[in-house]
Design a protein that fits this description.
The protein has about 425 residues and is an alpha+beta fold. It has 2 domains: about 1-120, Serine Threonine Protein Phosphatase 5, Tetratricopeptide repeat, CATH 1.25.40.10; about 125-425, Porin, CATH 2.40.160.40. Helices cover about 25% and strands about 50% of the residues. The chain is built from 6 helices and 16 strands. The longest helix has 21 residues, at about 1-20.
C-alpha cells in the first residue's frame, strides 16, 4: 500500500511537469500534486517525513486558494492536511467553511466526524503577533479648552489649563499566549470522565510608545475544568487573574471567575456565551476598586465558503467604591470576513457601547448635574494578503475609527488607530 501511495505521488509530480510543459491549466495539476503529497504523508510512518509531506500539501492547496478561494474541494483537502498535522484551529476553520458549500450528505457527515474528533482530543493552542501601531489620540483627549460650571452667579465659562490636546504617537505592540487542555479521565470511560478537560493558559500584551507615558502592559492567566456535554455543546468554568501596568507601573489587579459555553446549532452556525465577575483593585485609585463583570452572547455563521458573519451583544457593569464611578450598559457588535481572489481577505467590524454612570454628574462636569452617559462607536477595517507569507505568517493592515459622545464636558474624543501586523496564513 505504501508503494502505491508513493507511485501516486510520483505520478502527480510528473503530471505537474507535463502540464507546465504543454501550457495547460495548472490548477488541476497542482491539486493532484497536493493530493499526492497528502497520500505520501499518510503512507509513511516516519514523523519527520510525514510532516514534510503535509507541509508540502498545505503549501500547494494554499497557493490554489490564493486565486480561487471558491474551490470547496481544495479547501476540504487543506482542512484534512491541517487535521492530520493536528493544527486543529486552522483545520476547524476550513472545515466549517467547507460545510457552507453544497456538499453530498456523506461528505458533510465525515466532516462532522473530524470536528468531533478535534473537540475530544488533547491539544496545545498558542498564538503570537507583533505590530507597528500608530495612534492619533493616545491620551483619548477632547482638546476642548472651555467648560461651563454652575455657580451662585450663574453658569460661567472656565478655561482648562495645561497640555490637554490630543497626542499622537507611533508604538510597537507584542502579544502572545497559549493554553493546554489535559484529559481528566480515560477515553471511553463509562463514567463520562473522558468528557472532562482541565484548561490552563496565560496571555500577555505589550504596547509601548516613545517616552513611556502611554505604555500599557498586561498579563493574565486562567485555570479550570471544561466539560464536553455532548457532540455539539461544551462549557468551561475558569478561575482568572490579571494584572495591568500603565507607564511601567502596576495599576490594577483582578481576581475572578468566568463561565464560557458554546453550542453548535448547525454545522455552519455556532453560538457562544460568557459571564464573568471579578474583584478589581487599583494601586493608586482605590475609588474605582470593587466588583466588575459582564455577560455576552454571540454567534458565528459560515454563510458561504468565502464569507463568515458574526455578531455579539452583552452588558458590562462595575460597582466601585465611589458612587459616581459605578456604571453599567449594553454593547453590541457585528462583523464579517470575505475571502477574495488574488490572496486578499477583507474584514469589517462595527460596535456600539453605551455606559451610564450613577450619582451626580458633578465629578464628571456634566451640564445640569445630570448623571454621565457615554456612547462609544468603533469601526474597524482590515485587509491582509494570503499570497505573501514569511514563515507561515502574512501581513495585515487594520484601521480603526473610535468616537465617544458624552454629556460630560471635555471627555468626548475622536481617535484613529492603525496596525501593521503579521498573522498566520488563512
Amino acid at each position: 500500500m505504501r508503494a502505491l501511495y508513493l507511485i501516486l505521488f510520483a505520478g502527480a509530480v510528473l503530471l505537474v511537469a507535463t502540464t507546465i510543459a504543454y501550457g495547460q491549466d495548472r490548477t488541476e495539476a497542482r491539486f493532484f500534486a497536493g493530493m499526492g503529497a497528502l497520500a505520501a504523508a499518510r503512507a509513511t510512518a516516519d514523523r519527520e517525513m510525514r510532516d514534510e509531506k503535509l507541509d508540502e500539501a498545505i503549501g500547494i492547496f494554499r497557493s490554489i486558494l490564493v486565486d480561487r478561494p471558491d474551490l470547496v474541494r481544495v479547501r476540504l483537502e487543506l482542512a484534512r492536511a491541517f487535521f492530520l498535522k493536528e493544527e486543529d484551529t486552522l483545520a476547524r476553520r476550513h472545515f466549517e467553511q467547507v460545510l457552507a458549500g453544497d456538499l453530498p450528505p456523506a461528505v458533510a457527515a465525515n466532516i462532522r466526524r473530524f470536528l468531533n474528533i478535534m473537540r475530544s482530543r488533547r491539544r496545545w493552542t498558542a498564538h503570537f503577533g507583533a505590530a507597528i501601531a500608530p495612534d492619533s489620540n493616545l491620551n483619548a483627549a477632547s482638546g476642548s479648552r472651555t467648560i461651563f460650571v454652575d455657580t451662585p452667579f450663574g453658569r460661567l465659562p472656565f478655561t482648562r489649563q495645561g497640555d490637554i490636546a490630543p497626542r499622537s504617537g507611533l508604538g510597537v505592540s507584542l502579544w502572545g499566549g497559549g493554553e493546554y487542555q489535559h484529559p481528566l479521565g480515560p477515553p471511553g470511560s463509562r463514567s463520562g470522565a473522558s468528557r472532562w478537560r482541565l484548561r490552563s493558559g496565560a496571555d500577555a500584551n505589550i504596547r509601548e510608545y516613545k517616552g513611556g507615558t502611554f505604555d500599557r502592559h498586561s498579563v493574565s492567566a486562567h485555570l479550570g475544568p471544561r466539560r464536553l456535554i455532548d457532540a455539539r455543546t461544551e462549557a468551561s468554568l475558569l478561575a482568572t487573574v490579571d494584572r495591568q501596568w500603565a507607564a511601567g507601573m502596576p495599576e490594577t489587579d483582578r481576581f475572578g471567575l468566568r463561565l464560557e459555553a458554546e453550542r453548535l446549532l448547525t454545522p455552519r452556525l455556532a453560538m457562544f456565551g460568557q459571564a464573568s465577575a471579578a474583584r478589581r483593585n487599583c494601586r493608586d485609585c482605590d475609588w474605582i476598586d470593587g466588583p466588575v463583570g459582564d455577560v455576552s452572547l454571540g454567534a458565528s455563521w459560515a454563510a458561504l465558503p468565502i464569507l463568515r458573519v458574526g455578531g455579539n451583544a452583552g452588558w458590562n457593569w462595575s460597582r466601585t467604591n465611589a458612587e459616581h464611578w459605578r456604571s453599567g450598559g449594553p454593547r453590541a457588535g457585528l462583523g464579517a470576513t470575505l475571502t477574495l481572489p488574488a490572496g486578499f481577505t477583507l474584514g469589517l467590524y462595527a460596535s456600539l457601547q453605551r455606559t451610564e454612570y450613577q450619582g451626580s454628574g458633578l465629578a464628571h462636569n456634566t451640564i445640569d448635574r445630570e448623571p454621565r452617559e457615554d456612547e462609544t462607536q468603533t469601526l474597524s477595517l482590515s485587509v491582509h494578503n494570503r499570497a505573501f507569507t514569511v514563515a507561515g505568517f502574512s501581513p495585515r493592515l487594520s484601521l480603526v475609527r473610535e468616537e465617544r459622545d458624552t454629556n460630560a464636558q471635555a471627555l468626548d474624543y475622536k481617535r484613529n488607530r492603525a496596525e501593521l501586523s503579521f498573522v498566520r496564513q488563512f
